[in-house]
Amino acid sequence: MSGSLTLPIPFNAFGREPEALINSQLTAVESVLRQGPCVLGPQVERFEAAWASRCGAAAAVGVANGLDAIEIGLRALGIGAGDEVITTALTAYATTLAIQRTGAQPVYADINPATACLDPAAVARCIGSATKAVLMVHLYGRAAEMTAFQAICSSHGLHVVEDCAQAHDARHCGRHVGTFGAFGAWSFYPTKNLGAVGDAGAITSDCPELVAIARQLRNYGQSDRYHHDRLGANSRLDELQAALLLQRLPHLSAWTERRRQIAARYWRELVTPSLQLLEPPRDPASHVHHLFVVRSHARERHQQELLDAGVSTLIHYPVPAHHQAALGAHRLDPAGLRHTLEHCDSCFSLPTHPALTDAEIDHVIARCNALA
Ligand SMILES: *Cc1c(COP(=O)(O)O)cnc(C)c1O
C-alpha cells in the first residue's frame, strides 16, 4: 500500500474501507431488513458460531459490548460481593468497572515495564484469602504469558479469565487468546481490531455451564420464556451488528497482517533516543498491534511537535484505574505500582490503523526520528 500523503494523519482512519466490503455490508443490512425485526436471531447465531470457531472455543455468546462480556463472565462464575479479582490498573476503565459491577473488589498488581502487561510475580504477591480470579488483559494486542498465569492460578485454585478486547487473533504458544481461562471477553467496539459499526461484544468459553448461564444473564436472567432464575440484564448482541460482523470477519487476517507490517517498521526504523519502545514480541503471532505504544520523558512536548507535523497520537492510558474517582474499595500490590505509574506518565500511542498508507507511515517515522 503506497498512496498519497494528506495531513493530518488520523489516529483511526475510518472511512477508507474497500468498496467490496461496503457493498457486502449493504447487502447484509438489506437482508436483515427484508427478514424483518428480530432479536437473538439467525445473524447472532451465525456470528457466534463463526467467532467460536475462529477462536477455537466450544461456544461464543454474543452480548451488547465488551464491558458486559467481562461482567457477565465473572457473574457466571459466581463472583460477586466479598470476592476479589486481581487485575492491572493499566487498561481501559471498563476492565475495572466490570469487576465493580459484580460487587467484587479489584486488586491491582504491577506491570512488567518491558511489555506493559501484568507481571506474574506481582500477581502472585497480590493473592489473598478473598481472591477468586485473575483477570488478564492482553494489552495493546499482546498475548499475555498465559502459561505462567495459569500455573499460578491453578496452584491457588483461582479462575484465570481474559479481557481480549484488544487482542482479536493474538496467540500464545499457537493457541488463540480467550481459550486459556474460564472465559474470554471480547469487544467489537468500532476502534478494535475487529470492530462492528456500533457496540457489540462476546464471551467465548469451553465450559457448557458457564455458557448456559451467560446466555441467561444477557437475556433478563431467563431460563425459559417468562421464568427468571437469575438477576440478569438486557445485553443481547444486535442482529444488525452481527450481520455486519459476519461481513467484516473475513477481512480480519489482512488487517492484522497490515498492523504487523506497520509495527515491524516502527521497531526497525524508529531510532531516536527520545522515544523508548516496548519489547518486540518473540513470536510474531503473539501480537496483533491494536496499539503501538512508545514512552517519552517529554511526552507533552513530543505529542505537540508531532501534532504540529500532522501526526495524531493518543495516550493509553493517562490515568491508572486506581486513581479514578469512580473506584471504590480496592487493594494494591504490596510492592506498589511503580511501573504502572511510570508508564502512565510517559506513554503515548502512534497510529497503527491498517488503512494507513506507506507514505503516512514514512511520515510518522520521519517526524518521530526528528524529535529532540
Ligand atoms: C474496549 C475495551 C473494553 C470495553 O469494551 P466496550 O465494548 O467498549 O464495552 C474492555 N477492556 C479493554 C481492554 C478494552 O480495550
What does this structure look like?
This protein is 37% helix and 16% strand. The protein contains 12 helices and 15 strands. The two termini are 30 Å apart. The chain is globular. It has 372 residues and is an alpha/beta fold. It has helices at 19-35, 42-55, 66-76, 93-102, 120-126, 146-156, 208-217, 239-248, 252-269, 299-308, 338-346, 358-369; strands at residues 59-63, 84-88, 105-109, 131-137, 159-163, 171-172, 175-176, 184-187, 201-205, 222-224, 227-228, 275-277, 292-296, 331-332, 347-350. A hairpin with a 2-residue loop joins strand 6 and strand 7. The structure holds pyridoxal-5'-phosphate. Pyridoxal-5'-phosphate is lined by residues 65-67, 91-92, 94-95, 137, 163, 165-166, 187, 189, 199, 201. Residues 65-67, 91-92, 94-95, 137, 163, 165-166, 187, 189, 199, 201 line the site of pyridoxal-5'-phosphate.
Main attributes of the structure:
37% helix, 8-stranded mixed β-sheet, 372 residues, binds pyridoxal-5'-phosphate, 12 helices, alpha/beta, 3-stranded antiparallel β-sheet
Rg calc: 21 Å
The main sheet orders its strands as 1-9-8-5-4-2-3-14
Principal-axes shape call:
globular
Present as ligands are: pyridoxal-5'-phosphate
Give the termini distance in whole angstroms: 30 Å
| Number of E strands | 15
Give the SSE string.
HHEHEHEHEHEEEEEHEEHHEEHEHEH
Helix content: 25-40%
Number of helices: 12
Average pLDDT across residues? 97
User: What is the strand content?
Assistant: 15-25%
Structural class: alpha/beta
**Biggest sheet record:** 8 strands, mixed
Low-confidence stretches: none
